[in-house]
Amino acid sequence: MSSPTDEQIALIRLTLEGRKMTYPDRFEQEKLLNLHKAKMLVEQAFAMLSQ
After folding, report:
1. pLDDT tens-place string over residues 6-45
2. Which of 48, 11, 7, 39 has its CA nearest to residue 26?
């Protein structure tokens, strides 16, 4: 799994700060945040399983 790009990191930060973009860009923003959350949860699961 690769790391997010600088632009993706900026979008994730905006979302976590509660700032929303206008539609239709907001759909992409929310999709990216959900993918990031899923990646973090998968990484946590792998870490727990490898202990």
Report:
1. 887 887 788 888 887 888 888 888 888 888 889 889 999 9
2. 11
